[in-house]
Amino acid sequence: MSQTLPSAGTDTDTHGRTPKKAAVASFLGSAVEYYDFFIFGSAAALIFPTVFFPDADANAAIMSFATFGFAYVARPVGAVILGHFGDRVGRRKVLMFTLLLMGASTFLIGCLPDFNTVGWWAPALLVLARLCQGLSAAGEQAGASSMTLEHAPDNRRSFFTSWTLTGTQGGQILAALVFIPVLALPDEIKYGIGWRIPFWLSAVVVVVAFIIRRTLHEPPAFEEAQKSAQISKLPVADLLKGHWRDVLRVICCAFIAAVSTVFGTLAISYAKTVAGVDGTTTLWLVVGANLVALGTQPLFGMLADKIGRKPVFIYGAVASAALTPVFLLSLESGSVPLMFLAAIGFFSCGYAASNAVWPSFYAEMFSTKVRFSGLAIGTQLGFLMAGFAPAIVAAMGGIKPGGWVQISIFTAVICGVAAISALTAKETFKVPTTQLGLK
């Protein structure tokens, strides 16, 4: 069984499923969506305090991180709306919408005036555009994960759905690579037109992903539900009636996503402010760890198809908690090789296990009738912790000398909640797709 990205060639099985094509479309769509999402995170750590909050002094970093978190406020609202339509009219149509909304809002961020031009209107417009990004992201992973799982063979669901989250790593790599030359520019260019270029470039990748995603059809399971009139009229109502425990379980498990923002956003600021590590080096740490994760996440997906979702997910949560202080202290060591080794261990060999498995783990808790809604609402409520993790920890003193302690404690708590919640779930890796979520 190969861990390389599946070919998008003809792979239709006897049930009309196209798992390879679905995995490729999900990978590319997630890469585009999260390129847009992560360039905002990089800019929030390195650019926006100067461009949008020059009068905030010591509070500039906290306010900038708060704009990053606003998208996570919009995500639960988007999850309810997009989950409803995803379960009512189809996964593919919603995924096309989320792609276009993310691309448009990201391009417009690059066009915003700065604080020196329009005052506080500048951060207000930034928050508005960020809210649109959040609405889009609310449906992307849930829709892509639902579609890929429903296209996948019963015994390889975790492997194929892992490519949805591996796409987010591709997006983060691209975002970091685009920002590295921006940081090398003179300040007058970097804080003028330079930072805008990565946001404008999103238009190109959105067009490419849109063309690819158009060719994907709805999963046979959803099409069969439409033909037999088994589509729910009010998916959210049916979800809360029959699956409220699973929704609560997914919310708590989804706290694990805060590890990603600790690594990709908070640690960048910590390294720059406390350890004196330049922004270029920290972005290369992000690139290196995510490159390795491109290989490890499909492997973790394969492992979960062999031994189950729960042990792989829980291992990822425990490893993330244990390796957070190791990674943070490596940033203060002054040794770049040590930083890279710690980053790869923490992110690529620890967190990547939970990240690869959660699309199948969460989605398998729900039936086809409410899967999109359950996955979207559960994850987006849980992701609120990820969105505000940088601002919360910064307010706790996490980006001051000795702040590695606060960051490590915070990460250990959220990982503990995720692991304990996962222990309460049923193991589903041997359950046929048609029987998932049935009581």
UniProtKB/TrEMBL annotation:
Q: Which SUPFAM superfamilies match?
A: MFS general substrate transporter
Please state where this protein is localized: Cell membrane
Q: How does it sit in the membrane?
A: Multi-pass membrane protein
Could you tell me the keywords of this UniProt record?
Cell membrane, Membrane, Transmembrane, Transmembrane helix, Transport
Entry-linked InterPro entries? MFS_dom, MFS_sugar_transport-like, MFS_trans_sf
Q: Its domain of life?
A: Bacteria
The segment(s) forming the Major facilitator superfamily (MFS) profile domain are 22-430
Transmembrane stretches, start-end: 34-54, 60-82, 94-112, 118-138, 159-181, 193-212, 247-270, 282-300, 312-331, 337-358, 370-397, 403-425
Which N-terminal residues, if any, form the signal peptide? none
Q: Which CDD domains match?
A: MFS_ShiA_like (cd17369)
PROSITE patterns reported for this sequence: MFS
Does the keyword Transmembrane feature in the UniProt annotation? yes
Q: Does the keyword Calcium apply?
A: no
What is the name of the protein in this document? MFS transporter
Source lineage: Bacteria, Bacillati, Actinomycetota, Actinomycetes, Micrococcales
